[in-house]
Amino acid sequence: MEYIKGFEDKRFGLLGEHLSHSFSPQIHAQMADYPYALHEVEKDELKNWVETCGLDGYNVTIPYKQEIMKYCDSLSDAARSIGAVNTVVRRADGSLLGDNTDYYGFSYMLDTLNIDIKGKKALILGAGGASKTVQAVLSERGAKFLVFDLVGENTYSTISQHSDASLIVNATPVGMYPNTGVSLVNLAQFSQCIGVADVIYNPARTALLQQAERLGIPCVNGLSMLVAQAKRACEIFTDSTLSDNVIEAIRKSVALQTENVVLVGMPGCGKTTVGKLVAKALNRPFVDADEEIKAKTGRAPSAIINEDGERAFRLIETEVLKSICKESGTVIATGGGAVTIPENLDVLRQNGAVIFLERNINVLAKDDRPLSVNLPELYQKRLPKYQEFSDIAVDGNGDAEAVAQRVLDAFSEVVK
Length: 416
Hints:
Rossmann fold, 3 domains
């Protein structure tokens, strides 16, 4: 893969208010040899930061894409026409040029949907800096778009009046880590929708995108946009050129680095043992949902089930899963009955690949498992749920190291 060298002495980064969700350092590290750091800056510190940061260039994200414009000495034609800046470069004379590479990024992202939107109605959620870029791209492509926000001519309370929309784009942070699992619209109201794009990339599947998947609507998250705009920013930072081929290669690489491996399967099928081996191979943290429940409550899952009943346990389990499954780059072993709660489907799938360890019930461990009294009956009851929840099934029989390798192969296959 192409890689730009000779910029070790330059300093670049990302400016924003809250950046714990950002994948930008991993992306830029695969494009060039310059250091790239995150810079979290409060609103009242922005002016001082711009004047003293000393960076050779930086990207800009929420909430400064419009605010940063007044600190730029000049703007590119794209930034000026869009009304937002997401890339700033310090020129030889020390002046700051504001540019917009999001236009390139969103154009690339929209192309991945492979839909024709000319003359069709598009709904844009949000009116901030990201929205302005989306508006510019859709305008150039001949779409008839409406912008929705909390206030103004078009608010979310009236969005259902546009059920004939063909494309819906979320250009807001609603549903973004750490506040996952929420959406501004119900896609079931849009029977003519042929595409959904969400500029959010963490989690990999927002609530909006998960609903689109269930309804069979082509959809895409913001990772391709993020990588594409970063590629263009890198070219500006280094005054170099990279092939578009690097975009897909890096997007897949970042997805493999950041999406979770989530193991489901019968109690005693080896999820914890295999999960630890997978985590070691990937150099990732491992989280056992049952152990997290024990740490949270001070009681083992079996004790909670025996003393308070299974329903009480499942409520606790879901809250724990919501917490651990929204994180990135983790290997997670779930409890055997996690799939019995419909709400957990989106929880488990929001940020990772769900893999079903399918193991012969005759060799399943039964110790300290109060629900494993009649394993054949329990298996038949849960099997459809394991299949529904999972992206792929893996043979869980045999040596744990061999099973772990099957999981690793399956994970690479599932993550697109």
